[in-house]
Design goal:
The protein is mostly helical and 212 residues long. It has eleven helices and no strands. The protein starts with 29 loop residues before the first helix and ends with a helix. Bound molecules: fe (ii) ion. The site of fe (ii) ion has 4 residues, from loops.
């Protein structure tokens, strides 16, 4: 029986073949990039507040800021970014002056991500003026919304406010309860928009009743 032997010749190198790089299937949006960056910072052992703000604070600020934007307008992308970044200064370098340290970090990071300069300026203003002590400096609707959304988020994190009273301020139960109640009342009193009060009124009234 005859056999046919097929010989396959494979060249040792094919240096001229160039496979073009595949385009990325998904282009990550700027808000996702910011969230990933903030989560990385919260996970670091150097985070001044640990990981908890990433779970119990920032998502609520984002939720309320977008809810307010539905009613009041404002740049939703800027609001989402500012919600995730407004306390980055506190995470990275501690609470003192965290509005200014945070604005600087946000500028560096957003520039690195290629975010437009004029939008970076809007985010920076939201961060610089988000603290209760800065509410007279808020000009844009985005700054006002971030200030209110930051305050509203407290009503979804009562355990966190008690933790601050017990752990960071070392208060006893009676003093902690009084302190939490007063803090939440101040947050309510400082809300800028009627829409904010409308959103949070049931929780505010329930908490005031429980902590009487
Ligand atoms: Fe905050």
């Amino acid at each position: 029986m005859n056999r046919t032997v097929l010989k396959t010749v494979i060249p040792a190198t094919v240096s001229w073949v160039r496979i073009p790089p595949l385009p990325p299937l998904i282009t990550m949006d700027i808000v996702t990039k910011v969230k990933i960056y903030v989560e990385e910072e919260c996970k670091k052992p150097t985070s001044h507040y640990g990981y908890e703000p990433f779970v119990y604070h920032f998502p609520f600020v984002a939720k309320y800021s977008l809810e307010l934007a539905d009613k009041l307008g404002g740049d939703r992308e800027v609001l989402a970014i500012a919600s995730w970044l407004h306390d980055i200064g506190a995470i990275v370098s501690g609470r003192e002056n965290h509005h200014t340290t945070g604005a600087k970090i946000a500028e560096e990071k957003l520039t690195e991500f290629g975010y437009p300069k004029e939008k970076i300026e809007l985010v920076k203003k939201c961060i610089l003026n988000h603290r209760g002590s800065q509410n007279n400096n808020r000009i844009s609707v985005e700054e006002q919304i971030i200030g209110d959304a930051d305050a509203l988020s407290n009503f979804d994190n009562i355990s966190g406010i008690f933790k601050a009273a017990f752990v960071y301020e070392s208060l006893d139960q009676e003093k902690a309860q009084k302190s939490v109640r007063e803090k939440l009342k101040r947050k309510w009193d400082k809300l800028h928009f009627e829409e904010s009060k409308k959103i949070i009124r049931p929780k505010y009234e329930a908490i005031m009743l429980l902590l009487k």
